[in-house]
From TrEMBL:
Region (Disordered): 118-143
Protein origin, superkingdom: Bacteria
Boundaries of every UvrD-like helicase ATP-binding domain copy: 7-279
Species lineage: Bacteria, Pseudomonadati, Balneolota, Balneolia, Balneolales
Residues noted as binding ATP in the record, renumbered to the chain: A28, G29, A30, G31, T32, G33, K34, T35
InterPro entries documented for this protein: DNA_helicase_UvrD/REP (IPR000212), P-loop_NTPase (IPR027417), UvrD-like_ATP-bd (IPR014016)
Membrane-spanning parts: none
Signal peptide location: none
GO biological process: recombinational repair
Name of the featured protein: DNA 3'-5' helicase II
Pfam assignment, any one: AAA_19
UniProt KW keywords: ATP-binding, Helicase, Hydrolase, Nucleotide-binding
Gene Ontology molecular function, alphabetical: 3'-5' DNA helicase activity; ATP binding; DNA binding; hydrolase activity
């Protein structure tokens, strides 16, 4: 069957030769149809070469960035079992899950190391403080896990994040283990290439650096038997744990196809994004529309109503683009470059900020895999929703799956299974009475009630908090050597359930606001990009520096001199990703303390012409 392969698609397809495989890196900037190429090539492979794999029981491994992307590719390939399509976490577990003895030893060594680190902090800390008591609980919990390791028959892992019990592994452990095993276990390397002679990784620039390095190691050793295909664009790297400069310094034997035509954006947006990135310029199709872009600059030093300002921007964009649909917020996609801004505008900043600031690696919080988060998103919030909707069937089903009160062993050991079920119903009623006292109870109150009733299994990361006694709460805080994770959760749990619900909507792409992460691969007719340092509060990004209103810091200058990434580099990538979502027209709103500098910088960089810049007063 002819799937109309383009010249680039043909080059990729030729690499998937099972008798003479070749690895490749496809550079594909925004709007070039990267996923379309991936699916088109795989459909051709399905028609012409898949039978060869079926005879040998082998598969093509395809790693996608999200579950939604995985499901879409599976659907477009007709759910053909020749293709193993999954996220990186699922693929990693698929590789290592049979290595139970090795997993056991890895967990043993890693848990010992974690205990030693906690004990060292305890030795340096002040005895009797709240932080000390929290550390001791963590040491106790990890020591219990260590002492139970030999009794664990098998370790388990759920990519959805519902992992509990001593045999459960979390996301970070699975990724670390897979990287270590692929580097240090030659047998696993051979098993992987025999099972997956072709491995394709979509959005490879955001795949964990340690795993990418491990795959490179395998490819380098077995390149005559194994094809590693990377689809990506380093300018669209949005997570800090991705591999910087991916695609540079590849061996000459690698194919390096490029997709240069942007089918998504109008000509004027493509010209802007080419100027922003400064390399690998894209072209527009001959019949592409011209499109409209405008930069709106607002003096943030003045007393302004941002909601009113942005409403005026939409109205003005309707005039400038001759598109009345701009006037309705429902027809405009609002994109922010930083999560604090989205959290503030969407109403979950009190829950989000402490957890976001806790670590330099924010990826687990943003994709919902941070320890403790899946408990909220997959158990607590759904249970409350079922109770509110009087959906007893779904609530009971959730309880059967997660509640210690309805564990099979407990039901068998109880005098009467019916009485045990009644006890669970009473616990649910007592739990739900929290909403009679408060329309929006605090998360900490909800968790304490769950713990007291044994309604659901509290995640290990939150146990030190719910297990505190009244005496613990009276102890004066320690000034240093606190546990940053517990401290962050302490603050986050002071927020209400509604904030956690809004956070869950945000990471599920159900919010009115999106950031660069939420819109990866998506496109919208009308895009409004908001740049606002005051709301973003991020230390990794700075829009005033990007827009020329502030000078680069000493650290930025030093990093630039040493060839390292700067704040401006990171912010520019995010700016590129958001601007490149626009299919018809684009408005950029910049809140700044120096209007003239921003205007002059935008003109000098050839991002916007003078007649495309509008200064709005308060």
């Amino acid at each position: 069957m002819d799937h109309d392969l383009s010249e680039v698609d043909q080059e990729i397809y030729s690499c998937l030769n099972l008798n003479s495989p070749q690895s490749f890196f496809l550079f594909a900037g925004a709007g070039t149809g990267k996923t379309r190429s991936l699916v088109t090539v795989l459909k051709t492979f399905q028609d012409e070469k898949a039978q060869q794999l079926r005879y040998t029981g082998q598969k093509v491994g395809i790693i996608t960035f999200t579950n939604a992307a995985s499901d879409e590719i599976k659907r477009r390939l007709g759910f053909d079992s020749t293709f193993f399509v999954s996220t990186i976490h699922s693929f990693s577990w698929e590789l290592i899950k049979s290595y139970q003895n090795d997993i056991k030893e890895w967990v043993r060594i890693n848990t010992k190391k974690e205990i030693e680190e906690l004990e060292e902090k305890e030795r340096r800390g002040r005895p009797g403080s709240k932080a000390s008591r929290d550390r001791k609980r963590k040491i106790s919990s990890k020591s219990q896990r260590l002492s139970n390791i030999d009794n664990i028959i098998s370790f388990n892992y759920s990519p959805t994040g519902i992992n509990s019990g001593y045999g459960a592994l979390n996301h970070a452990e699975v990724i670390k283990m897979t990287s270590d095993f692929l580097i240090n276990k030659p047998l696993l390397q051979k098993i992987m290439i025999k099972r997956f002679p072709i491995l394709l990784i979509d959005e490879s620039q955001d795949t964990k650096e340690s795993l990418i390095d491990a795959f490179f190691e395998v490819e380098n050793k077995y390149n005559s038997e194994f094809s590693l295909g990377l689809f990506g664009d380093t300018m669209q790297r949005i997570y800090m744990d991705g591999k910087p400069n991916l695609g540079e310094g590849l061996p000459d034997r690698w194919a390096k196809p490029q997709k240069k035509i942007n089918y998504r954006c109008p000509k004027r947006v493509i010209k802007l994004t080419n100027k922003i990135r400064g390399d690998q310029p894209q072209k527009a199709p001959e019949k592409a529309d011209e499109g409209t872009i405008r930069l709106f600059i607002i003096d943030s030093d003045k007393d302004i109503n941002k909601s009113d300002i942005e409403s005026r921007v939409r109205s003005k964009m309707g005039e400038e683009s001759k598109d009345k649909l701009w006037e309705s917020s429902n027809n405009v996609k609002v994109l922010t470059l930083e999560h604090h801004m989205a959290a503030s505008r969407s109403g979950f900043i009190n829950f989000f900020a402490p957890l976001y600031n806790m670590s330099s690696d924010s990826t687990p919080l943003l994709d919902g895999t941070m320890r403790g988060i899946p408990f909220l998103t997959n158990q607590l919030i759904p249970l409350v929703n079922f109770l509110r909707n009087e959906d007893d069937f779904s609530a009971t089903r959730l309880m059967k799956r997660f509640s210690p009160l309805l564990e099979p062993d407990r039901l068998e050991q109880s005098e009467s299974a019916i009485k045990q079920i009644e006890k669970a119903k009473e616990a649910i009623n007592e739990f739900y009475s929290l909403w009679e006292e408060s329309s929006d109870p605090k998360l900490i109150d909800i968790l304490l009630t769950i713990y007291e009733l044994n309604l659901l299994a509290i995640p290990e990361v939150l146990k030190p908090i719910v297990q505190r006694t009244s005496e613990d709460l009276e102890v004066e805080e320690e000034g240093k050597l606190r546990d940053s994770v517990i401290e962050a959760w302490d603050s986050a749990l002071e927020s209400s359930l509604s904030e956690a619900v809004k956070y869950a909507e945000y990471i599920s792409d159900e919010s009115n606001f999106d950031t660069h992460q939420g819109i990866k691969g998506l496109e919208f007719p009308r895009v409004l990009v908001i740049l606002d340092d005051e709301e973003s509060r991020g230390f990794l990004f700075n829009y005033e520096k990007l827009l020329g209103a502030k000078e680069p810091s000493t650290t930025d200058k030093r990093n630039e001199k040493n060839g390292k990434e700067t704040t401006i580099d990171r912010t520019k990538r995010l700016f590129y990703v958001t601007c490149s979502r626009a299919e018809e027209s684009l408005a950029v709103v910049a809140y700044t303390q120096n209007v003239e500098k921003v205007k002059n910088h935008a003109i000098s960089q050839d991002w916007f012409s003078e007649n495309e810049i509008i200064i709005l007063d308060s």
